Fold this sequence. Notes:
It contains 19 helices and ten strands. It has helices at about 1-10, 15-35, 40-45, 65-80, 85-135, 140-185, 190-235, 235-240, 245-300, 305-345, 405-415, 435-445, 460-465, 470-480, 485, 505-520, 535-550, 585-590, 595-604, and strands spanning about 365-375, 380-390, 395-400, 420-425, 430, 445, 525-530, 555-560, 570-575, 580-585. A six-stranded mixed sheet has the order 6-7-8-3-9-10, sandwiched between helices. The chain has a four-stranded antiparallel sheet with strand order 2-1-4-5, covered by helices on one side. Strand 7 (about 525-530), helix 17 and strand 8 (about 555-560) form a beta-alpha-beta unit. Adenosine-5'-diphosphate binds near residues 383, 403, 406 and 407.
Amino acid sequence: MGNFRRLLGYLGRYRPWVVAAIFSNVLTAVFTVVSIPLLIPFFQILFDQAELVTKAPESISGVEDVQQWLNYTFSQYLTTYGKETTLGYVCIAILSAFLLKNLFRYLALFFMAPARNGIIRDLRTELYAQLLSLPLGYFSEERKGDLMARITSDTQEVEASILNVLEAVFREPLIIIGSLSIMIYVSPALTGFVFLLLIFTGVVIGGIGRRLKRASAGVQERLGDIVSHTEETLGGLRIIKAFGAEGYQGDRFATINDDHRYRLTRLLWRRDLSSPLTEFLGIATVALLLWYGSRQVFSGALEAETFIAFIFAFYNVIDPSKNFSKAYYNIQRGLGALERVAQLLDIDQHLPEAEDAIALGQLKSDIAFNAVSFSYGPKQPQAIREVSLTIPRGKSVALVGASGAGKSTMADLLARFYDPVEGSVTVDGIDLRKYKIKDLRQAMGIVSQEAILFNDSVASNIAFGREIDAARIEQAARIANAHEFISQMERGYDTNIGDRGSKLSGGQRQRLTIARAVYHDPEILILDEATSALDSESERLVQDALNKLMTGRTALIIAHRLSTIQQADEIVVMEQGRIVERGTHLELLEVGGHYAKLVELQEL
Ligand code: ADP
């Protein structure tokens, strides 16, 4: 119910549109119902059955009086204008009723369009803002697909159900009640008879529908398997070929593919049956109705023209009833989707910022890790264990060690993507948690192992969120050894670099991210050294760019190639979250411990 209220909340933002749509829905229902009895006078004239009523009712206090008044007016027309002209007038009346009904039906949709799409936009905007604001720790690989689904298809589903709510609440019941009242007024016995028929066919058709839904879910699942298997294969083609596993993978694919065929065939057999069966059942219902009704007409219990109006009323009940019964299911689905969207929106997992957070100006003395311990979750092993480390202003400290030793975690703690479980990280002696997060991030520049670029121009990727100053961008690019290749590109700094920079080589991408860091001019640098995947020429350019970037800045470097960090002011060797050795390159070589061994390994 909470979600229903939430949905109403979103609708509330578009109140004028929604009110107009509801109003139009109500009028659609009114004109649908009004058009039914209009058929009676038409057939009365046609069948020459019109009885002339010469007396107007004295007062109008009930349905009977209304009918008598209508008949009286109708008789007046007949005697004054004659049959043909009156028939013409009746036709115009019928036409007008249908015109108005369809006009309002369109208007209802017309008014709903801005509200429906506005709500999708609002949901997506909120979801996207939430994605940007959630801490890094929230996102894991397996969550990405799920988050994508929530922002695309779930929001779409919410939209579809909104329309259903309005029509199901304001239009269909009115049409059903109105048409039913006419039916009951005309002949209670016939109405009862029709009801029995409807219940019977409804049960049969509904049963088929439910089974179809279940079967189609199975087919969808299988299709998903085919897609993911193909994806997996494309990603692992190199390995599949290298291990000669084509046959094995092919067999696995064939099994899934064939199961999909089997299920789909059975689904089609059933689905293709439903339309002929429905039509036949529908016609059988009408035939029974005609048979039973005409007996009543013959016996004089019912006038022929009223019987026709009855059939028309019956016809008008069918569609709204179908929609009404579907609406419940659709609304449930929409609310389910909204639930998934709401779950994401309601996560309140933001890194806490102190209320009296202080601004971070220039770095004065140092950055320090004070007996920091950290683990990624209550049940996870400690990734960092009581690490203490100081990086004086303007100096650089390099972290080395095997993969999994905790180097990236140290970098993430410094950027305050996570907070330590024990101990503290300080800047100028003050805990990171006391600073404004925005200031903190502004003071830090990160160049990571994968060059993260966006589908935008070169200039925008360098300025990235800051104002574009062409002269400074070029200067930054020169420092990053990127100016040369950029100016050789088709449109220079305005060239779009494609999805994730796909049009660039690895070294070029890396130099662009360095240019970005230069442009943002941070005081503190976090470098996840990424020269290992590059050829030596690119590596030289990137390394040179990095050295220029580091000049005069305070840096924490994660080193993969030891040759690149010999100049670091301090080298810290980590193992399983602990510092096991520290010193300068020469000091550590002299000690002949872990570092010396690592260097030896890399030189081989
Ligand atoms: P390094 O950068 O030295 O390779 P990391 O800092 O990435 O090491 O990892 C340190 C430890 O923390 C490893 O045992 C790793 O498995 C674990 N770890 C890293 N990231 C996560 C995460 N997001 N969730 C849980 N454990 C993690």
